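Many introductory courses stop at the sequence. We go one step further.
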Amino acid sequence: MPYSASKNLFSYRSFWAQRFGTAPELPMSRAEMEVLGWDSCDVILVTGDAYIDHPSFGMAVIGRVLEAQGFRVGIIAQPDWRDLSSFTQLGKPNLYFGITAGNMDSMVNHYTSDRKIRSNDAYTPDGTAGKRPDRAVLVYSQKIREAFQQATIVIGGIEASLRRIAHYDYWSDQVRRSVLIDANADMLLFGNAERAIVELTHRLAANEPVENIKDIRGTAFVINKIPAHYSVINSTEIDKPGRIDQIASPYQEIPDCEQKSDLQDEVHLEVDLKLKKHQLDRDTTVIKLPSFEQVKNSKPQYAHASRVFHQETNPGNARALVQAHNNQFVWLNPPPLPLETQELDRVFEMPYARRPHSEYGDAKIPAWEMIRHSVNIMRGCFGGCTFCSITEHEGRIIQSRSEKSILKEIETIRDTDPLFRGHISDVGGPTANMYRMQCKSMQIEQSCRRLSCVYPRICKNLNTDHQPLIDLYRNARRLKGIKKVNVASGLRYDLAVESPEYIKELVTHHVGGYLKIAPEHTESGPLSKMMKPGIGSYYKFKALFDQYSKAAGKEQYLIPYFISAHPGTTDTDMVNLALWLKQNDFKPDQVQAFLPTPLAIATAMYHTEKNPLKKVNHRSEKVRVIRKVEQRKLHKALLRYHDPENWPLIRQALKNMGLKHLIGNGKQHLVPAWQPKTKTQGPVKTAKRSSGLRKAHKKNGRVAGKPAHQRSIKYNKNQ
C-alpha cells in the first residue's frame, strides 16, 4: 500500500463532544471535569509518567490528538497501584482505557544494567523514585480489570510495543509471553500510534465491538483461530536453515537495494523460490512464527523468530505475523504507515499547555527541564543499531516536520516561556542529522528488507543530502530573539562526513563546546554485532570537526560514547578500547553497559548466543556473551581505566590474560603498578591527570595513538 493511500489523520468527522471545546490542560480529577462541563470521559489514559502537556511526552500527544477528533480525554498519571481508588477517580470511560508505562519502559526506568535499583525517576516530580510499579502495563491493566470488569483496555507505548510477541526478559532471565496475554487487554497498539488510535476510537464510538476490529495497521490482538481466507506461511519456509541461493523476493516488485553486497546474508531475507509460484496476496498472507512454547524451550528457535520478525518491519512490504500461545494466537498486523509531513506538523501544533499539569505546582520534573527549550524535528531512525529500541518502536522511515512548523515552535517557546533566555537547547530527534533523509525511490523504499540503510555501508539509494538541515539551522538562528541554537541529539557521523558543509555549519554555529557522538567501540567484533561503522569513520569526522572548529576560532571537543559487555565483545576487545581511550586521553565519567531490552536483535544474541543477522541453525555462528557479574564489572572498569578504584581489578585481569606488560607507570601502560592509599590508610595519592579532552584536541586535528587495527598486543588465546 502506498503511504499516500492512508487516510489523513485529521480527515475524520469530529465526534459530537467537540462542542465542549479545547481544555487548557487535560483533566486529572472530577473537579476539573466539572469545570469543563463534562459528566464523563470518552477515553481515559493511564500513564506511569507525570502528566506533562508537551509534544515530547506520549500521553500528551495521544490525548491532544484525540481531543482534536472531538473526544473527551482524561488522564490518570502515576496512580498508586496499591490503592484501587486511584484508578476510579475519573469513573469509567465511555469507550476505553488507554494504558502505557510512560516514555520509558518501567523496568529500564527502575533498574540499571546490573539490575540494581535506580535512585531517581526523571519523569516524576522532584525525580522521586518508586512512583510506578515494575511491569507497569501489566499492573495497571490488572487494576483496571479489577475495578471495571467489562471495560475495554487498549495498551501501548514503548513497554507494550517491545513486548508484543514472546520475548526474552532480562530482569527475570526467562522468555515471557506476549504482554497482551498477561495484561488481558483487548488490543495493543505498537509504534507511533496516532493513526491506529484515531481509527480505533472513531470505530468504537460508532458502536463497533472491539472484538470485531481486526484490520487496523499497527495493532495486535488475541484470536482463537487463524481466519480461513488467510494464506499461512511457516516462518521456516521463508528463512530455511542452511544456505539458500540468493533470489529475488516474490513479494516485491524490484530486487532489494544493493543486492551485490558480500554481506547480503546479514542484511537481507532470502525467500524460498517455491513461494513465488503461489503469487500470494500480501494483504491476506500471514507468517506463522514459532510458538511461545517453542521459543521458550529452544534458543535457536528464538533467534530464528527474531530474525524473521525484524525482516517484517517495513510498512511498505511487511506481512501480518501470528504466534501461538497455548491454544490462542497473538496476531500482529503490519506496522502503521508513517505520517505525512503535514500530519506530523499538526500533531506538534496541537494546543499543548507546554508545561507540567498545574497539580504539580513548583515541583521540578527532570525530564521536562531537560527538553523544555528543545524542539523535535523528526521521528524514526534507519541506523538499525541492534542494541537500540528506536527502530523497533518508531520504525526506519524518517518522518520529518516542515521547516515552517519547526520555526513556529521555536517562536512559541520564545514568546510563551518566561524562563527562556534565547537559547534553544536542541534541534534534533532520535538522530540529529537524518532530517528529511529517505530513499531516492519510493518503490525501492517500500520493497527493501534491509535492517539498516547505513550498514555495512551507506546504501547507494539513500539520499544523504544535508542541505534541508543546513537551511533549517540558518533560518532558526536568524529568528528574532534567538541567541543560540544547539544540537544536542546524538549525531550519525558516518552520514555527516558525506556533507563537509554540514559539519562546517554545525561546528561553527551549533555546538555548545561539546558534541556527543557514539562510536560505541573500536573493535570489529562487537561493532559487527552492533551494526555500527568502524572507527575509521570517527577519524574522518574528527578531522573535519577539528578543522572547522579551528577555522571558527573555537575550542570544541567531541564526547564519544562507548558500550561495555555488548554481545560479541571479548576481554581483549575491551582492553584494546581502554588503550585507545588512554592514548587519546579520554576519561569517561559515566559508562554505558549493555542492557538487553525486549525485541532488540542484540538481546536475541544475548539470550541465544546466536547471530540473527545470519541464518540460524545448530552450526551457525556462536556469539560470545558477557553474563557473569565479575566480567561485566571488568568491562565497565576498563572503560574507566583512569579510576584508581578499578586498578586492582584491571591489574588482575591483565595478569590472567597474559598482558602483564600493560601494567606500569609509563605512557604505554594501561594502569600503574602502584595503588593510592584509601582514606583509612592515609592521604590519597592521586594520579597525575591531564586535561584529557583539551589535550587530545590540540594536536591540529590529529588523534594521538595508533588506530586499533594498527596496534599489536599480546593476548591469551583463551580470552
